[in-house]
Amino acid sequence: MKINDLDYLIVGAGVFGATVAERLADIGKKVLVIDRRKHLAGNIYSYTDKETGIEVHKYGSHIFHTEMKEVWDYITKFTGFNDYVHTVNTRHDGKLYPMPINLDTVNLLYDTNMTAGEAEKFVAREAKRDSEKYGIKEPKNFEEKGISLVGEKLYTAFLKNYTEKQWNTSAKNLSAEILSRIPVRFSHDNRYFMTAKYQGIPCEGYTRMIEKMLDSDNVKVRLGVDFRDIKNEISRDTKIVYCGQVDQLLDYELGVLPWRSLKFEMEKTENSLGEAVINEADAGVPYTRAHDYKYYQIHQPDVIEQKLSIVAKEYPADFKKDEEAYYPVNNVESARLYNRYVDLAKERYPNLILGGRLGAYQYWDMDKAVKNALELAKGLVG
Length: 382
Ligand SMILES: Cc1cc2nc3c(=O)[nH]c(=O)nc-3n(C[C@H](O)[C@H](O)[C@H](O)COP(=O)(O)OP(=O)(O)OC[C@H]3O[C@@H](n4cnc5c(N)ncnc54)[C@H](O)[C@@H]3O)c2cc1C
Fold this sequence. Notes:
Layout (H helix, E strand, L loop, with lengths): L7 E4 L3 H12 L4 E5 L10 E3 L6 E3 L6 E3 L2 H7 L12 E5 L2 E5 L1 E2 H8 L5 H18 L8 H9 L1 H16 L16 E2 L12 E3 L5 H8 L5 E5 L3 H4 L8 E4 L3 H4 L9 E11 L7 E4 L8 E4 L8 H5 L3 E10 L8 E2 L3 H17 L3 E3 L1 H5 L5 H16 L1
Helix pairs in contact: 1-13, 2-13, 4-5, 5-6
The structure holds flavin-adenine dinucleotide.
């Protein structure tokens, strides 16, 4: 397929771009998918470590979870999923507690043995007392909201430091809306995604899933190709779905859209975590999470039972332009800047549609990315 002998150019071989490409190819459109990285799958990319058989999620743990049957029915055409159900413990003062906060977390922290009903009343009393202590009526920021929902002790142990590490700013500078409802379950349920009807890990890994999505005579893939280096070769009539950052596309003409970044420190070790993810809630530990990838492979007991683990520590990092963008810093100012970029992109590239988490400047879980891609593809073909 020549660069101009195509109906659509998809920039970005992540799950969003792959879904759009698959849907278009299915109805006979000729699609070229490019990615500047040398691998498929975008941020859900995973590879198998040869020595251990462990599937490493290069850009951090990815657990597929959704309540949307349409998304599940679609994605399971390309992969089987194992029965992994995500749970997380968080370390505070050297002890592990279930996360999100549940009845056991409360009892462990206060060294009590309360029933669900007793704990609910107890936490409400703590929250009321501490709100009065700090004069919080209408919470104005994350800190006030946290204290008003769970009281100072639970808030400081599990929410404050973790969040401040993530965003590298005081919780007083963060929006109260981040915590919309009480982050406590008064039960022993420790499932991280409690409402997800469907969840699991692709049995053959995420990259294989994306390969299968793109396996069509109508799809060509070129890796290690940046759109900015080939844009002049593309006919003005070619329709482009662009899953990259819009500020970068436009050479940061209006300024840099703010993101948070991450750095991963990976090691092969016999010091297994004993589970897939442990959060680090305290300020003295510079990373927020550690991932022990083998625990996702519950369909392969041999992989889990071996001595070795591959553990990645996840460090929050400030973002500089042209570095890896992980979490958008969504606020009024960044929304305004993003909207100006969207207008400018329409002017400069009339055939270009922004898509994916980078192009939309949004945090989306994989299911949301797939859902939005399915909708975009439907809209494109009428
Ligand atoms: C740390 C972390 C953990 C997460 N864990 C989960 C989880 O457990 N479960 C879940 O459901 N979701 C999770 N997510 C969200 C998930 O990563 C996203 O939903 C998903 O990656 C979105 O896919 P995408 O295709 O939109 O973007 P991406 O995967 O980022 O793909 C975009 C691609 O575009 C390419 N690109 C950009 N610009 C150009 C250019 N100029 N030229 C060529 N190529 C370009 C990039 O190289 C990239 O490969 C997590 C996100 C983060 C940050």
